[in-house]
């Protein structure tokens, strides 16, 4: 299981004990990792495409320059994991443990994380373009310089979050709860205009 630079297609790793392994340059396609133990796994430039991580233990795992494309995360445990310069494009998260964890320059474009608990998580510098943030709990999270263009945010809780420098559409300013959130002057103008106010001077 330590062989690198290989493509693995359609393999069933359900219930497998793969903890503490180091993978580099691999390409997993349509593989099943349901209920597998991937705790402490370290991946570098590994690509997972349409893989199933339902019930998978990813605690304390580290992923650098890796990609999870259109993958399924259901009841997955990502606590104390680290993702750097990685992507989750098109993936979905349902009832997962996503904090505490480190997300450094992570691309969440088109990701479904509706209803997720991301309270207090530092997501600064991440991309969340057209992400599903419906009912997501982002209270006290750090979203500085995050690209939220096209994100669906109905019912999202951004109270006391730091949104300074974030790019957002009208939908965010009118659909999310923003009590106590930190924003910049230009964002304040956008917020006012989104609520039908006319800003002068």
Uncertain stretches of 5 or more adjacent residues? none
Provide a count of the helices. 2
Helix content: under 10%
The proportion of strand residues reads: 15-25%
Give the CA-CA distance, first to last residue: 65 Å
Molecular structure report:
The protein is mostly beta strands and 201 residues long. Helix content is 8%, strand content 16%. It contains 2 helices and 11 strands, in the order βββββββββββαα. It has helices spanning 170-175, 185-194; strands spanning 7-9, 22-24, 27-29, 42-44, 47-49, 62-64, 67-69, 72-74, 82-84, 92-94, 102-104. The strands form 3 sheets. A 5-stranded parallel beta sheet has the order 2-4-6-9-11, with no helix packed on it. It has a 4-stranded parallel beta sheet with strand order 1-3-5-7, with no helix packed on it. A two-stranded parallel sheet has the order 8-10. It is elongated and about 60 Å long. 40% of the residues are buried.
Quick synopsis:
The protein is mainly beta and 201 residues long.
């Amino acid at each position: 299981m330590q062989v690198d630079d290989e493509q693995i297609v359609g393999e069933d790793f359900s219930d497998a004990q793969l903890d503490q392994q180091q993978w580099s340059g691999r390409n997993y396609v349509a593989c099943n990792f349901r209920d597998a133990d991937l705790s402490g796994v370290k991946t570098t430039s590994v690509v997972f495409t349409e893989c199933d991580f339902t019930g998978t233990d990813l605690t304390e795992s580290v992923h650098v320059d890796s990609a999870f494309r259109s993958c399924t995360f259901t009841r997955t445990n990502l606590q104390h994991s680290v993702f750097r310069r990685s992507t989750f494009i098109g993936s979905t998260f349902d009832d997962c443990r996503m904090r505490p964890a480190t997300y450094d320059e992570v691309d969440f474009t088109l990701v479904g994380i509706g209803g997720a608990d991301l309270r207090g998580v530092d997501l600064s510098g991440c991309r969340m373009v057209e992400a599903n943030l419906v009912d997501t709990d982002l209270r006290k999270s750090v979203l500085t310089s995050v690209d939220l263009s096209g994100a669906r945010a109905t019912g999202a809780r951004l109270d006391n979050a730091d949104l300074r420098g974030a790019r957002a559409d009208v939908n965010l300013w009118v659909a999310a709860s923003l009590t106590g959130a930190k924003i910049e002057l230009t964002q304040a103008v956008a917020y006012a205009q989104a609520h039908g106010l006319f800003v002068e001077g």
